[in-house]
Amino acid sequence: MHSRLRRKISAAFLALATVFAMAACSNSVPDAGAGSDSGGSSSSLTAAIAAMPTSYDLEGTWAASNENYTIWSQTMVNLVRYKYAEKNGVQVQDFTKYEGVLADKDNPFTVSDGGKTYTFHLRKGVKSQAGNPFTAQDVYWSLQRKLNVSGGRLPQITNLFDNINQVQIVDDYTIAIHLHDVDKGEIFLPNLTGQMGRIWDKTEMLKHATSDDPWGTKWAAQNTGAGYGPYTVSSVTEGQQLVLKANANYPLDKPKFTTITMKVVADSGTRAQMLASGDVDVAEALSPSDATSIADKVQLPKVDNPTEFVGLTLVENKAPFDDQRVRRAFRYAVPYSDIIKQVYQGKAKASSGWVTAAMGVTGLSEKPAYTYSPSKAKALLKEAGKTSVPVTLSVSSLVPDIIDSAVMISSSAKAAGFDVTVKQLSAADFASGRANKTFQALMVANRSQVQAPAGIDNFFSTKGDNNSAFAPTDEYTGLLDAAKNAGKSTSKEAAPQWQKFSDFLNDEASNLPMVYRQPNQAYSTKLQNMSYRYDSTIDYSILAPKS
User: Whole-angstrom Cα distance, residue 216 to residue 226?
Assistant: First the structure.
């Protein structure tokens, strides 16, 4: 049930592993019921992924990557999840509706004490991947772990919940969390629903705890099997593939595929061609051009309101972006339409700001926050007393669409008065520079894990890990509080206040989504139940052969 995680190997070896992976790929989606050994489930599915995950523990050794998010979402689950609804052939999560996972299906939670107490009603008869019964003790221990390990990932709700004494075990299948205040920002449930809310099997985890590591972070970083998710990692071939096996104890509908083989194929174009030729059933992390090149042979999911974006950050405490006029000028130096057309093949849209329709806020302006205008850029630079401004734009060398976009910015920005040097960094160096806030300007693929408008604060508040550009001001805080106090974020009364908050961030021009992009996965035409989640990963647990 447990598996040993192997560390990433060199890029050269990954490329070599791709050759072997291509030669070894012979799996394809079987007919529904073929090879079934668990209530009609099909036997196997093969996916091509870009790299191996680096950690199975999102709390103890947290590191953001598509592969890590995928493993976390498929091996661990929460008390609740967002409800799915099918639209245009894609199962899309509704970020305003919840259903029980480890909590009761029909009555997952109740709210009392004027909105300050959330009581979760737990499912009975659930067992973990290790076979241990699930009770309120597991939830209590999991919350305690999140509050005690360095990567506990609860910075957004510390004003509401920051102490295990706020958790009350009512009985074996009922647990209450007493908040400090009413959650006017509506971020408490989304935090527990997202990556931060994963629940552990306390009994299994304590087997791997030590006096030096009481929360089992070393073991959990390299093993699965101490959760309740649809899959566990059963084997790893270093640098080449990992194999997921279905969890017979999974409390929701059993996965249709009992085995998921994830093969490392470093090149996006190769992943695309393997899918088009039927050597794999799913391809992840495709560049827009590679996805477009096989569009007539595969399924490409499309959603109305994509949540994943390419963020362009202009760091306020470093010249020349310590001047708002220069920041706004640079926004006008970006060729948005050309980037959408050439880099994203039309599969993206210019950003209107941070607050989006996916968050349930009605009546928002869809007008792009900025458009390419060298004349406006030059006028703002002239007002700031500048004529030619050098800029170093840092990007990760592993994200080709961002590199291509940065190169286009570099070329187009010349006419707007900027001399842009694109600096490509290794993934490790880019992550380090971002964490240490050493960059002048950067571009990164990102998404808001908490799809509620107040969750945007994570990208600006000093409590969050994303803030490298902006120090909250009184005006920022006032607008945010006014929006939260206007009522439910989905109400007509609150919408104008959230629009003002979004407009303020657009004008500040320090940290903004540049474009919102469509999903970067592709599927065999033999599959159904493509998914679009808050974390932009594939939900393999609901994927199925076409009936």
Answer: 11
